[in-house]
Amino acid sequence: MVKEHNKKAIILLSGGLDSTTVMAMAKHDGYDLYAMSFDYGQRHLYELEAAKSIARAYKVKTHLLVKTDLTGIGGSALTDAISVPKDRDMDGGGDEIPVTYVPARNTIFLSYALAWSEVLNAPDIFMGVNAIDYSGYPDCRPEYIHAFEQMANLATKATVEGAFKIRIHTPLIQMTKAEIIRNGLELGVDYGLTHSCYDPDSLGNACGRCDSCLLRKKGFAEAGVDDPTQYTQPGSRGPGFP
Known about the structure:
alpha/beta
């Protein structure tokens, strides 16, 4: 017999546009929010400062910051001495996975979320992966999410004993960035709180040229709304990060 559980959601919160939109969706659906962010040795911590502000704004029940150092593994421009690509053609297609891919990152993050879900008695895990307007990461694809969910339901005491079934929610996975932004604005998301840049300056201003910045700018342009991001180029708008 499946045990009763509260309507709790674990949100993998990076501090970026997508994960914040997912948090707004989960709140709209009536979940109690439990946010999980990661200090994994990434190039900068501005995204974590953004995540803290977002968690406060959404009055999450708990915001858990997990420290797991992936710099020893390296292999990514986000965790190693590798330059972040700039000014790439984001409409050019191709099968090359960019060097900003962090080896097995979503698998690591989801594994932490899975452990916390068992402790919280919270079967619902939300993440902001996207398979349309994205940089080509293999762990953002629907087949990956499906496979991890299947594994999760074989892997824990709670699922094996029938306490609950793990559900990984990826509501943005088939949306364009413009559609994500429009949905978020309808839910009252303040995108000025979010941070997406892979390679900001010393003040936290977005470079405007990395893949993440280019996708973000493209999304706001196609959505027909102002981008509140503070970019390093003259004429940019919106708040930066201290």
